[in-house]
Amino acid sequence: MNVLERFQDVSTFVFDVDGVLTDNTVLVTEEGHQLRAMNVRDGYAIKRAVEQGFHVAIITGGKSEGVIKRLQSLGVTDVFVGIHDKLATLEDYLFYHSLDANHVLYMGDDMPDVPPMREVALPCCPADACPEVMQLAK
After folding, report:
1. What is the DSSP annotation of 41-83?
2. Which one, of 98, 99, 91, 123, lies nearest residue 16 by Cα?
3. Is the whole-model pTM more than 0.90?
4. Most buried of 10, 78, 114, 129 (most Cβ within 10 A)?
5. Do the beta carbons of residue 122 and residue 7 sit within 8 Å?
6. Is the Cβ–Cβ distance between 9 and 121 less than 8 Å?
7. pLDDT tens digit at each of 138 positions of the chain
8. Are the C-beta atoms of 87 and 119 separated by less than 8 Å?
């Protein structure tokens, strides 16, 4: 099965933020605020996915109010921040929405993403993800 065929059964996209929707850079202001840069093309794709009826969720360990507002402006209503146990949050999300993990794409880049990536049909990662995540996202 080629990679495009693997996408046919996807109904749900779940993303981490730092390192997935950002370039892993965190700018810190003099006041201590943390700023992240998000790609507008990713934003367009997320907005289109929501408009097309896909489920889209964010599960992140970060707690940026700016990130929350950006994702909500794209139509994402399921934004989970400050999460330490991403697998439990994923399982709760799937249960609440009566979704099947066999139809989920999860994109992560670091060790906290490994447990949920093991539970979904299509684990994915950016090209600069840690080796353990790269191994799962074949």
Report:
1. HHHHHHHHHHHTT-EEEEE-S---HHHHHHHHHTT--EEE-S-
2. 123
3. yes
4. 129
5. yes
6. yes
7. 677 888 899 999 999 999 999 998 889 999 998 899 999 999 999 999 999 999 999 999 998 899 999 999 999 999 999 999 999 999 999 999 999 999 999 999 999 999 999 999 999 999 999 999 999 997
8. yes
